[in-house]
Design goal:
There is one protein chain. By secondary structure, the chain is an alpha+beta fold. It has helices at residues 3-23, 38-49, 80-85, 91-101, 108-127, 156-170, 221-227, 246-253, 279-283, 303-312, 324-329, 332-338, 348-355, 359-374, 450-468, and strands spanning 27-34, 54-57, 74-75, 134-136, 146-148, 174-175, 179-186, 189-196, 202-212, 257-258, 263-270, 275-276, 287-289, 318-323, 343-345, 395-407, 410-411, 418-420, 427-433. It folds into two domains: 67-173 and 209-262 and 408-468, FAD/NAD(P)-binding domain (3-Layer(bba) Sandwich), CATH 3.50.50.60; 266-404, Flavocytochrome C3, Chain A, domain 1, CATH 3.90.700.10. The protein has 15 helices and 19 strands. α2 (38-49) packs parallel to α15 (450-468), α4 packs across α5 (108-127) and α13 packs across α14 (359-374). The radius of gyration is 25 Å and the shape is elongated. It binds flavin-adenine dinucleotide (FAD). Residues 34-40, 57-60, 65-67, 69-74, 155-156, 179-180, 213-215, 237-238, 241-242, 245, 276, 406, 435-437, 449-452, 455 line the site of flavin-adenine dinucleotide. Belongs to the FAD-dependent oxidoreductase 2 family. FRD/SDH subfamily. Residues 30-452 form the FAD-dependent oxidoreductase 2 FAD-binding domain.
């Protein structure tokens, strides 16, 4: 090539590059992950491990979504930690508890994957450096199988901490304050997304596969009431970004959504601040009394049953009561004390006075409860889990009522996490989903501790499958 020709093609090349620049030439990745909770962060890690180029976008200024709020723990049966602690459990019993909680409306294939892969999910998190060495008991479980950090510390911050470190180490970028606003189509499939940054600039990102891990819609009263009008006026435990952003995308592309009206109310939410009081506090011995000071239920009943029982009481409210032994068994309790959600007193009568309930009735109730449990008699409400006498002062009480907590419904996926088309149930090419943005796994009532396992397990599958596309 002579000098003149070389110069001409150089100028042409530069001109073309300039035109692409002005038109906003799209970025390209093998896998685009939308949402930086447990599902999205794990999807990114797995996709990168498969050799894919990956970008994570997150609409909020910080990562973690609802995952970072999780307190109680993550379920797994037959895990290495259970074995170390001498806890006997089985996959069959975890599956049975999951199906029973969901009134057997769960997608059985997805529920089986959840249970079978949970111990591997715990191992993977531990290998990343997560402390999941404490195993506790949550409502509706036949065995202690809820894994959390030593001393019963909140689990969500621990999971997000190790995932953030792992992504940093692998050089996987997370672009904050960047939201998905549309899907880019290719034939009947997806080949990327339209996104908007915090300045309002819209641009395209092309990808061979896209993973929707945007979480649920429990943070948007307008959306949860649209699907379940009975929840009008309910508090929520969710982060403000849980607004169901996948819904308009699904409607646009014709994706199937299942169980959208199935929204779990967590029975114990502190009503004045919308703060979830972990089930682990009941699992470790706490009891519930009504506004008179009377017990009225098995505190470890399934969440839907317990929420309904609290709503039947006066003001739809109850008090969660525990003693210092329970407080010391669960470091998550300190958080509630620091946030001034807890009233405390040296005697049951004094506590009753502070809570505004009947002192003689409450102290008689507690005395009776302790007598039954000291003497090993059957609990009159059939309390199904740990029952210990509450006789170690000081005594504590927190006001609780049910609040919107978890969306069982969401995008229909298959066992490869491919999003299904509504018209024919076939997979939409290039589109994957994981975590609370999906539906069916938990049926119409989720067992506590199963959603972190869900987000981790299906996030990992989504990352691998998306990378192999
Ligand atoms: C207070 C609380 C306590 C809980 N405790 C437990 C527990 O102990 N055990 C348990 O198993 N489960 C628990 N859960 C449920 C569990 O934490 C969640 O279901 C799970 O973490 C969901 O993970 P995810 O990755 O699917 O979604 P999330 O963690 O919610 O992440 C989704 C992310 O997507 C982002 N996003 C949303 N829309 C867009 C968009 N348009 N563009 C870009 N990004 C977007 C969100 O901002 C968010 O960061 C709890 C939930 C709450 C609220």
């Amino acid at each position: 090539m002579n000098k003149r020709k070389l110069l001409t093609s150089l100028v042409a090349g530069l001109l073309l590059a300039g035109i692409f620049f002005l038109l906003g030439r799209p970025e390209k990745y093998d896998v685009l992950v939308v949402g930086a909770g447990a599902a999205g962060l794990f999807a990114a890690l797995e996709a990168e491990a498969e050799g894919a180029s990956v970008l994570v976008i997150e609409k909020m200024p910080t990562i973690g979504g609802n995952t970072i709020r999780a307190t109680g723990g993550m379920n797994a049966a037959e895990s290495e930690v259970q074995e170390k602690l001498g806890i006997s459990d089985s996959l069959e019993s975890h599956l049975e508890d999951t199906l029973q909680a969901g009134h057997r409306t769960n997608n059985p294939v997805l529920a089986e994957i959840l249970v079978e892969q949970a111990k591997e999910a715990v191992s993977r998190l531990r290998a990343l450096g997560a402390d999941l060495e404490d195993v506790g008991y949550l409502a509706g479980h036949s065995a202690p199988r809820t894994h959390r950090p030593t001393g019963g510390a909140p689990v969500g911050t621990e999971i997000v901490r190790v995932l953030e470190e792992a992504l940093k180490e692998r050089g996987i970028p997370i672009r904050l304050e960047t939201r998905i606003t549309g899907l880019i189509r290719k034939g009947d499939g997806v080949k990327g997304a339209l996104v908007r940054d915090k300045t309002g600039r819209e641009y395209r990102i092309l990808s061979s596969a896209l993973v929707l891990a945007t979480g649920g819609y429990g943070g948007s009263p307008r959306t949860f009431v649209r699907y379940n009008p009975a929840l009008a006026g309910f508090n929520t435990t969710n982060h403000p970004g849980a607004t169901g952003d996948y819904i308009p995308l699904a409607e646009d592309i014709g994706a199937r959504m299942v169980d959208m009206d199935q929204i779990q109310a967590h029975p114990t939410v502190e009503p004045d601040h919308g703060i979830l009081i972990t089930e682990a506090l009941r699992g470790n011995g706490g009891i519930l009394v009504d506004l008179m000071g009377r017990r009225f239920t098995d505190e470890l009943a399934f969440r839907d049953i317990l929420s309904a029982r609290i709503l039947e009481r006066r003001n739809g409210t109850a008090y969660l009561v525990f003693d210092d032994r329970v407080r010391r068994s669960l470091s998550a309790a300190e958080n509630y004390i620091q946030r001034n959600l807890v009233k405390s007193a040296d005697t049951p009568e004094e506590l009753a006075g502070k809570l505004g309930i009947d002192p003689p009735l409450f102290s008689g109730e507690l005395e009776n409860y302790n007598r039954i449990h000291h003497s090993g008699l059957d609990d009159p409400y059939g309390r199904s889990g740990l029952s210990i006498p509450l006789d170690t002062p000081p005594y504590y009480g927190i006001k609780v009522s049910p609040g919107v907590h978890y969306c069982m419904g969401g995008l229909a996926i298959d066992d490869h996490t491919r999003v299904l088309r509504d018209s024919d149930g076939k997979a939409i090419p290039g589109l994957y989903a994981a975590g609370e943005a999906t539906g069916g796994i938990h049926g119409n009532n989720r067992l506590g501790g199963n959603s972190l396992a869900d987000a981790v397990i299906f996030g990992r599958i989504a990352g691998r499958e998306a990378a192999r596309k």
